[in-house]
Amino acid sequence: MTRAASAWSVLLALVATLLVGGASAAAAAADTPGPRAQTILHILDYVGVDYPGAVQDGKVTDESEFKEQVDFVSQTLTMLGELPDRPERAALVTQTRQLLALVQGKGPAAEVTRLAGEIRWAVIKAYQVPVAPSRAPDLRAARELYAARCAACHGAEGRADGPAAKGLDPAPTNFHDPGHHHGGGDHGPPWRGGGRAAGLSADAAGRAGPHRQRCAGP
Ligand code: HEC
């Protein structure tokens, strides 16, 4: 498989995972601590990724983002208290208090990210949160979802040549472009607030930001 072809299948697999995610979230809603623990994981993930954008060298660089980070960690503390008691919970609370103090004290980003990640894994272990889909991605359904929700801009085969792509600035990503890559930071998927929309092209977030309205994801 060529590199471009593999990027394309990765995208289809990603869309399929979103489908599975929706179904399993509905299933998980039926039992505790599923949804609450999942929310804690998402929040800690945000803190790990976004805190470096709010504080640099002990100084707040983005006031609203900084407030959000403090809120997020406080919420995590509250939610931990609402999870069923487990032997590990006291330690989780202690660690999260440390994280809160670190964030409030505008501590080093590397430490915040490390501690948030550590707490995440401890929550996953203590509450046995499933972090992988319980069934294989359904690529056929993913193709249908892609055709219905993404192809208008990204093109039927992912070449950014869909009818709605004309005139978009920035242009939709061509998934066959070998320079394109996924990951955290600026290149995170747009529905998580990443993507070039997050910073590399400042005005895109508000104006183009197609994913904000169209595919509100996890
Ligand atoms: C209304 C047009 C439009 C629709 C519909 C759309 N996209 Fe996009 N997409 C864009 C644009 C524009 C960009 C480039 C954004 C940027 O550079 O900030 C983009 C970028 C992306 C990227 C690359 C992000 C990165 O970090 O490089 C991914 C992945 C993506 N879209 C997936 C999807 C998926 C999956 C769907 C359907 C569920 C979808 N898009 C629907 C317009 C669209």
Order of helices and strands: HHEEHHHHHH
Distance between the termini: 30 Å
User: What is the gyration radius calculated from CA atoms?
Assistant: 19 Å
Proportion in β-strands: under 5%
- Report low-confidence residues grouped into runs of 5 or more: 25-31, 182-208, 213-218
Helix content: 40-55%
Cofactors, ions and other ligands in the entry: heme C
Please give the order of strands in the largest beta sheet.
1-2
Q: Any idea what the shape is?
A: globular
Q: Could you give a short account of the major beta sheet?
A: 2 strands, antiparallel
Structure summary, number of beta strands: 2
Give a description of the structure.
- This protein has 2 domains: 34-126; 137-214, no CATH class.
- Helix 1 (3-28) crosses helix 6 (139-149), helix 2 (34-50) packs antiparallel against helix 5 and helix 4 packs antiparallel against helix 5 (109-126).
- The protein is globular and about 50 Å long.
- A hairpin with a 2-residue loop joins strand 1 (55-56) and strand 2.
- A two-stranded antiparallel sheet has the order 1-2.
- The protein has helices at 3-28, 34-50, 63-82, 89-104, 109-126, 139-149, 151-154, 210-214; strands at residues 55-56, 59-60.
- The protein has 8 helices and 2 strands; from the N terminus they run H-H-E-E-H-H-H-H-H-H.
- Helix content is 54%, strand content 2%.
- The longest helix has 26 residues, at 3-28.
- The protein is mainly alpha-helical.
- The chain binds heme C.
In a few lines, what is going on in this structure?
With 218 residues, the protein is mainly α.
